[in-house]
Amino acid sequence: MKTSSRSLRIVNAALPLREERALFTLSAEDGVWTAVERQEGATVSSPETTPLDGWSGEMPPAGNSLRLDAGGLAVLPAFVDAHMHLDKAFSLPKVGNVTGTLEEAVRSYAAAVPNFSKDELKARMMRAALQAISYGSTTLRTHLDFHVRHGREVAMRTIEAALEVKEALAPYATIQLFPMLPYFDLTEEALDTAAEALRMGVTGLGGAPHLSPEPEPDIDRVFGLAERYGCPIDLHADESDNPSVRTAAYIARKTLDYGWSGRVTAGHLCSLAAMADEDAQPIIALLAEAGVGAVTLPGANLYLQGRHDRFPVRRGVTRVKELLAAGVQLAAASDNIHDPFHPFGRGDLLLIGLVTAYAAHMGSPADIREALRMITTYPAAVVGVRGGIEPGLDADFVVLDAATPEELLTMLPERRWVWRRGRCLRAPAPRAEWSGCALRAYWADACERVSFREERG
Ligand SMILES: [Zn+2]
Predict the structure, then answer these.
(1) What is the dihedral of CA 306, 307, 312, 318, to 10 degrees?
(2) Per residue in 258-277, pLDDT tens?
(3) How far is the CA of 84 from the centre of ligand 1 (A)?
(4) How far, in Å, from the CA of 301 to the mean position of ligand 1?
(5) Is the dihedral of CA 209, 214, 217, 218 positive or negative?
(6) What is the Å distance from ligand 1's center to 410 Cα?
(7) Cα 150 to averaged position of ligand 1 atoms, centre (Å)
(8) What segment(s) does the record annotate as region Disordered (predicted)?
């Protein structure tokens, strides 16, 4: 969407993805970054500059420029949620999971699918997508259930609902749709229905071939159909504690055969964490060589994996640091939200960044920057959008009420300004003061004395 001629300038912005703790001036024209300039110290606000904190979020009329003073707040590229299940989100009140296992979640949800109306599916997707956008994600990739065995109509209900949500939210977010091909009985009829979904406008093909009794021929069929329609592939891969489950290696070899670097994504990769180093390393090397994008889903994996272990209990999260070190593009994403697969989550990638940092032992300044890249620039590369704060890229960004990378993951600030193509989608109310309670007298003093900002110097 073109935001008619409009210039934006933000002074005193902190850029937590950069190692240098300086302040920057950011400029954008018509929703595209034009300059990122390092400042020598803080810029003194001029009368035509509005403090961001307290600004209403209202954009000036076309042709006018907007100058904002970020006051040292953190500016990140907009979040890219590379792996969601919008259609399942918020279904927990209807579909429970007593054992908390992946097996029960898959079984119960599949049985419930025929009862969901298109309206209900659409309402849940809308809520989940809007919530994700409100936290700062402007690109969402969602997998979609595609239960052809319940009949074409049931499978297409989800596809139609998703296409309508994608279109309705197009001014605010890019939504990519990946129907999950059945992992059993992948018949010609199922492939024809998937082809129809592609013609209707879904983005690519998904699936969970490690669940199939014969994963390799199923992966072959998915690649064959993707070739026919020139679409990307995003597979759930090896969401299992069983170290002998290794479809990732086959997916990587197929990607090399087809020369599809950057076009194939493998999510979960849990079994990599269950196998010995000498078994995992060649698979990681193969993923890197093939240019397969990877996604870790630490919330759902910590919750679902290890359910059949007695202590010591495996935690299921893939080898995050090893994948990063090998040069694999690795995203951290939401996966399921408040459904039988994962009762928690809220579509907030900053929270997922924190869970990733916990799960993968990432706490040094360099690690925290990596965790933040795993929810911004790395997933952008995985899903094929250009994300970052650099001249020439879309001005999709989020300003957060925090000054440092450490403060971002410590405070998970609720107050965020979410921007898409140079237009503000969400501005928070002015900073709430403590009022009317016994601790009020201490609050301002405590914040002033113990601040995350002192370190900047
Ligand atoms: Zn998933």
Answers:
(1) 10
(2) 999 999 999 999 999 999 99
(3) 6
(4) 10
(5) negative
(6) 27
(7) 20
(8) 38-61
Pairing of strands 23-29, 7-14: antiparallel
Check whether the bond before 51 is cis (ω within 30° of 0): no
What is the whole-number distance in angstroms between the Cα of residue 189 and the centre of ligand 1?
24
Q: Does the structure show a pLDDT above 70 at 455?
A: no
Average pLDDT over residues 333-362: 97
- 304 C-alpha to ligand 1 centroid (Å): 12
Residue 341 alpha carbon to ligand 1 centre in Å: 9
Q: What are the pLDDT digits (tens) for 28-82?
A: 999 999 999 999 988 877 888 999 998 999 998 888 899 999 999 999 999 999 9
CATH for 79-383 (3.20.20.140, 3.40.50.300, 3.30.720.210, 1.10.10.10): 3.20.20.140
Start-to-end CA distance of the chain, whole Å, equals 41
Alpha carbon of 85 to ligand 1 centroid (Å): 6
Architecture category of domain 7-77+390-449 in CATH? Roll (2.30)
Q: Note the pLDDT tens digit of each residue in 230-247.
A: 999 999 999 999 999 999
**Section 284-298 average pLDDT:** 98
Could you write out the DSSP letters of every residue in 409-438? HHH--S-EEEEETTEEEE-PPSPPPP-SST
